[in-house]
Amino acid sequence: MERYAPPEPIGTWRQGQMPPEPLATGLGRCLLEVARPIYVVRRQDGLCLSQDGAAQLGARPAAAEELPLVAYVPPLPPARMGDAGFKARHGLRFAYVVGEMANGITSVEMVREAGRAGMIGFFGAAGLLPSEVEAAAARLQEETPALPFGINLIHSPGNLELEAALVELFLRRQVRLVSASAFVDLTWPLVHYRVKGLHRDARGRVVCPNRLIGKASRVEVARKFLAPPPEKFLARLAERGLITAEEAALAAAVPMVDDLTAEADSGGHTDNRPAITLLPTMRALRDETAAVHGFAEPPGIGLGGGVATPDAAAAAFAMGAAYVVAGSIHQACVEAGTSPAVAAMLAEAGQADVAMAPAADMFEMGVKVQVLKRGTMFPYRAAKLYELYAAHASYDQIPAKQREILERDFFRCTFEQEWEQTRRFFMQRDPKQVERAAKDPKHKMALVFRSYLGRSSTWAIQGEPTRKIDYQIWCGPAIGAFNQWVKGSFLETPLKRLTVTVAMNLLFGAAVVTRTNWLRAQGLAIPGSAASVRPMELADIHQRIDASP
């Protein structure tokens, strides 16, 4: 470990109760004791280290019992990682978000466990009826009244009525934290949620009771999230009596979001952005807009997409992420609202086992989601449906041979039978789509194709064995990185993957990686064996992070 030029002393160290031990034998253990400092000192027999004693930076040894201090690493329990403002704003111990996964995959149970652990989870409301979302909100408010939680609001460009209904639900039930995902532009319901209830406190400060965390991978969308609500929406809301004149006036003092997640290469709707360039871009954009508008408290910028290993989490925090978001890896957790079959498929996936496929909710727009391709034909079949939709004005124009394949392998019934099922679905969710389909055969075809795409996720969640080849499982390459890291450990088995255990392993591991890098930055050569951190049981992690120095 001393093949390289040894670092120069940075101070002195005086021994405490425990004598120093050789660096080669004690480094790996000391790095895991993240709640205690590390002192690296020079003796005549080489470099040693201790987690005891007292150091004085900048001093020179003045007594025989003092040794030259060549490196120092402070304690770094995971609760210190991330932005303190983000944690205070949401009442958290850890800067960690369990991201929303649609159709209730991020379940009430998952959100509850995250809240109990001092993290925050967002219930996956996308794809559910307002009544189902309200039932979940009621459970969270009744079962965990003092714990932090949030609910997802996904953009519905063809159904603003649904967005408005969900916002009305959130306001009526006083759901105080919402995550806005897949938005390509701001909408009046989203602005309504953010602005409603704005007021000044006794000290004259503007208070925004409804907190919003946006998700964006494109600068043009992020810019709108980081700016105040648009005047055109404020005027419309005021005219309709949905907000007061005072609320509209105060809106200029606040950004649309409290925090913004830079969404890189994630599961679901994604633009496959590289995290290493996206996060700095979003942070610079935040600084630019905050300077223009003079916000008292600029939004925090977090990172999601690809955060699946301790190294990735450490890198995110090192780049200045206020918090990290994980989604794909939690879909394979025990509390996830999906089937054991899906969890098993995810646990076997590699980084290259994902693909982009047309999204059911934005099918006609050509928007894509990232899904698992290993063990399923869904991404290929979904792509075929969009190809046929783009090329033909109606289902009848599709060549007969191709229609035969669709009805035999995709729908497993005739087109008209599939349409009848589709019609019933949209009559319940969005009747105007059925009215439009009666006049436009291309739209009718699109709705039927969307029905297949939508039900494919339901088959996966339910674990329908006859439809395994059609499973739509949202995930990014993060799942492959996680599987590689946990290989050979207890977390390799899906039944051992508990939400909080997975999250704490990432945070604890990130603390170990960060402290290792601090030593490297002070000139120490660290062998790979000492720097590696393996998955640990939750009790073992807490024993280390809760220990007193």
Main attributes?
549 residues; alpha/beta; six-stranded antiparallel sheet; 21 helices; globular
Fold and architecture overview:
- This protein is an alpha/beta fold and 549 residues long.
- It has helices at 23-32, 84-90, 108-116, 130-143, 160-173, 188-195, 219-225, 231-239, 245-250, 275-293, 310-318, 340-347, 378-391, 400-411, 415-429, 431-439, 441-462, 478-486, 499-521, 528-531, 538-545; strands spanning 11-14, 21-22, 38-43, 46-50, 54-57, 66-73, 96-98, 120-123, 150-154, 177-181, 199-200, 206-207, 211-216, 259-263, 268-269, 300-304, 324-326, 354-358, 368-372.
- The strands form 4 sheets. The chain has an 8-stranded parallel barrel with strand order 7-8-9-10-13-14-16-17, surrounded by 8 helices.
Secondary-structure topology with pairs:
Layout: E1 11-14, E2 21-22, H1 23-32, E3 38-43, E4 46-50, E5 54-57, E6 66-73, H2 84-90, E7 96-98, H3 108-116, E8 120-123, H4 130-143, E9 150-154, H5 160-173, E10 177-181, H6 188-195, E11 199-200, E12 206-207, E13 211-216, H7 219-225, H8 231-239, H9 245-250, E14 259-263, E15 268-269, H10 275-293, E16 300-304, H11 310-318, E17 324-326, H12 340-347, E18 354-358, E19 368-372, H13 378-391, H14 400-411, H15 415-429, H16 431-439, H17 441-462, H18 478-486, H19 499-521, H20 528-531, H21 538-545
Parallel strand pairs: 7-8, 7-17, 8-9, 9-10, 10-13, 13-14, 14-16, 16-17
Antiparallel strand pairs: 1-5, 1-6, 2-4, 3-4, 3-6, 11-12, 15-19, 18-19
